[in-house]
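Translate structure to sequence.
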């Protein structure tokens, strides 16, 4: 499901428009992998499940023309040929409030408005991650301020070089970590070659 996901505030804020995947173990997919670099334990993650839709307007329009259950109207209204809105998600979402478990034409605006807003302002506090065994990205490592930006040589221990993911550089999904690994290795190799090593 295409979502907008964010966490943190100010300089520590991360925000991405990516796909979210619901799994038997929890939330996953590119959205979760991206935001994981910014998320801190005990901190909430905010998710807009319908970032490209005016859900309140769609539900109001549906109320005037439809007798479908709110869940069915949500799934139908939010679906496009490219990205269908999962019917099971709509069913699960509306099951959270008895006021949402009725035909849309019988629902009050007072019931529809919170339903729409909750889809666009879902806030959760993850209870953890799958851990290092399942990690696809890591954060931390040798501080870049302690290395030469041209050669990757340690400023504290001459002759010692650090490259790739052992350095505190974390890239977004899409090959940025690979690019960093290759670029830092190339810089290091060029420096070693120049020294005749």
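Result:
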């Amino acid at each position: 499901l295409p979502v907008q996901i964010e966490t943190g505030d100010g300089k520590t804020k991360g925000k991405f428009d990516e796909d979210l995947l619901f799994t038997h173990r929890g939330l996953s997919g590119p959205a979760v992998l991206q935001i994981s670099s910014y998320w801190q334990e005990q901190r909430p993650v905010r998710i807009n499940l319908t970032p490209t839709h005016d859900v309140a307007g769609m539900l109001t329009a549906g109320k005037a023309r439809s007798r479908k259950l709110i869940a069915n109207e949500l799934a139908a209204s939010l679906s496009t040929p490219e990205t269908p809105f999962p019917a099971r998600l709509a069913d699960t979402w509306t099951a959270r409030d008895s006021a949402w478990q009725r035909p849309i034409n019988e629902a009050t605006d007072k019931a529809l408005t919170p339903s729409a807003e909750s889809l666009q302002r879902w806030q959760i506090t993850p209870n953890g991650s799958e851990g290092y065994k399942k990690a696809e990205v890591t954060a931390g490592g040798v501080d870049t301020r302690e290395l030469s930006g041209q050669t990757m040589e340690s400023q504290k221990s001459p002759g010692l070089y650090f490259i790739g993911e052992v350095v505190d550089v974390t890239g977004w999904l899409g090959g940025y970590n690979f690019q960093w690994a290759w670029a830092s290795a190339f810089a290091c190799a060029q420096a070693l070659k120049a020294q005749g090593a």
